[in-house]
Design a protein that fits this description.
InterPro entries: DUF3333, MetI-like, MetI-like_sf, Phosphate_PstA. Helices cover 77% and strands 0% of the residues. It has 282 residues and is mainly α. The chain folds into two domains: 2-40; 45-281, MetI-like fold (Orthogonal Bundle), CATH 1.10.3720.
């Protein structure tokens, strides 16, 4: 027993040490980024297009491109992911075939993002002839986050007590009425949290969009689903690869904006989850 307690203490100590080291490294990285780029974050930087001159470069095209691409990808992932979760949890037979599908979905969640970029390049850009457009990029990112949305939605639906469904059936509700009126409202906070966190991952993805041909220098904003585009991570990557110090400062400022967007989306997920949970409890 003493040896077991000692091993647990050592394990907990190592975990705490790893957390402290990770937090220290993150703090150093944030301090470095803030010291390099905080002075560049202003209204002109947010509303200016990229430029060959570092002091005039901005992120307007990349910011609007990220909003277009990630927004459309989130709508697609939410629609198909929640629909697939409802089917798998409420309609599909729980047999060996369903278990195979579940395992494959879990495996797809761990596939490297660049593989989805190759898939998007072959299917959406070339086979379906969408070109290197906003729609092709959105579909590629939707495929990337779709397994995460499905898994999160399944867990949220599975957490709803069976007694709620049975009560609806006892009152004469059909299966769909019970799902729509009873199950989904209970599961919606968990579903919404999973969707927003999945979309937060899509905001920071670079490799799949580079593979499918997103531009690195865009002096315009997207005007439709078939327009060419760039996104914030690609713009930051482009600036970091430049030798001029001014572009490195612009890249640091772009990272700050990207971090603000990601943290805002995560905070929104927490607030919405708490709000819906309070509404259900009330």
């Amino acid at each position: 027993m003493d040896r077991r307690r000692l091993e647990e203490k050592i394990f907990h100590g190592l975990c705490l040490l790893a957390i402290l080291i990770g937090m220290a490294m993150l703090a150093v990285l944030l301090i470095n980024i803030l010291s390099d780029g905080i002075q560049r974050v202003n209204w002109s930087f947010l509303t200016s297009f990229p430029s060959r001159h570092p002091e005039e470069a901005g992120i307007k095209a990349a910011l609007f491109g990220s909003i277009f691409v990630v927004g459309l990808a989130g709508i697609l992932a939410f629609t198909f992911g929640v629909g697939a979760a409802i089917y798998l949890e409420e309609y599909a037979a729980h047999n060996w075939f369903a278990r195979i599908i579940q395992v494959n979905i879990a495996n797809l969640a761990g596939v490297p993002s660049i593989v989805y970029g190759i898939l998007g390049l072959e299917i959406f850009v070339r086979f379906l002839e969408m070109g290197k457009s906003v729609l092709a990029g959105s579909l590629t990112l939707a495929l990337l986050v779709l397994p995460i949305v499905i898994i999160a939605s399944e867990e949220a639906i599975r957490a709803v007590p069976p007694s709620i469904r049975e009560g609806g059936y006892a009152l004469g509700a059909t299966r769909w009425q019970a799902i729509w009126r009873l199950v989904l409202p209970q599961a919606f906070p968990g579903i919404l949290t999973g969707v927003i966190l999945a979309v937060s991952r899509a905001v920071g993805e670079t490799a799949p969009l580079i593979v499918m041909g997103a531009l690195t220098f865009v002096p315009f904003t997207p005007d439709g689903p078939m327009s060419r585009f760039t996104v914030l991570p690609i713009q930051i990557f482009n600036w970091v690869s430049r030798p001029q110090e001014g572009f490195h400062e612009a890249a640091a400022a772009g990272i700050i904006v990207l971090l603000v967007v990601l943290l805002s989306m995560n905070a929104l997920a927490v607030l919405l989850r708490n709000r819906f949970q309070k509404r259900l409890e009330g």
